[in-house]
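User: I've been trying to design a sequence by hand for this structure and keep getting stuck. Would you show me what you'd pick, starting by listing the structure so we're on the same page?

Assistant: Good idea, let's start from the same input. This is the structure you sent:
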């Protein structure tokens, strides 16, 4: 058969030495490498029992935010979907009915809100585009899933826990954002006192 290239380099195979034929030195060398790793700091963690903490600038899974009374902030204005370069966000708006004031902050809300995590590139433009502080990128990541459908996150997957009904889970979901919000509130309080 004709060779595909003329750059063939024929390598000379040296015969094995007695030590190589015994395999013992190679086995001992391999075992020493294995044992040396027992005393090194492991780069892996026992997920999900242990969680890795990400820096505050980390852009992870989106969270749909509530106000301090637990009302949904999103008004289904669609600005996040327009800003999204990956076209990962879809939503359906609905009008707030009398008696639903404790559920939704404004007269319009997102009856359906979905983000396709397989499309999302975690750029954070949805957070920047939102005029209502209704969406932000958290310090967590989308867990693995066996099915494509499992990566379509709906409103219930994205909504932050209720701050009054589930305060611990709410604080946990806020992460370092809680400290930033406290600092922001303190600064605005100081500013209002100065004026
Ligand atoms: S982070 Fe970027 S890609 Fe992901 S949903 Fe928001 S705007 Fe779209
Ligand atoms: S998350 Fe913000 S930008 Fe997106 S629809 Fe809701 S209010 Fe509008």
């Amino acid at each position: 058969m004709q060779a595909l290239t003329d750059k063939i380099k024929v390598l000379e195979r040296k015969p094995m030495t007695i030590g190589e034929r015994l395999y013992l030195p190679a086995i001992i060398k391999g075992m020493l490498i294995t044992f040396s790793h027992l005393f090194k700091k492991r780069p892996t963690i026992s997920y999900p029992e242990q969680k890795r903490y990400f820096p505050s600038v980390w852009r992870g899974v989106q969270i749909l935010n509530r106000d301090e009374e637990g009302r949904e902030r999103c008004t289904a204005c669609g600005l996040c979907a327009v800003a999204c370069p990956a076209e990962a966000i879809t939503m359906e708006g609905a009008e707030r009915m009398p008696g639903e004031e404790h559920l939704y902050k404004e007269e319009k809300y997102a009856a359906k809100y979905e983000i396709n995590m397989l499309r999302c590139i975690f750029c954070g433009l949805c957070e920047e585009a939102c005029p209502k502080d209704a969406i932000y990128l958290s310090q967590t990541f989308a867990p693995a899933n066996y099915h494509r459908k499992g990566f379509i996150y709906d409103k219930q997957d994205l909504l932050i826990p209720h701050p009054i009904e589930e305060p611990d889970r709410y604080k946990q979901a806020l992460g370092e954002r809680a400290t930033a919000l406290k600092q922001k509130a303190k600064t605005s309080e100081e500013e209002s006192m100065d004026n």
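That's my pick for every position. To get oriented when you compare it with your attempt: The two ends are 89 Å apart (CA to CA). The first strand starts at residue 62 and ends at 64.
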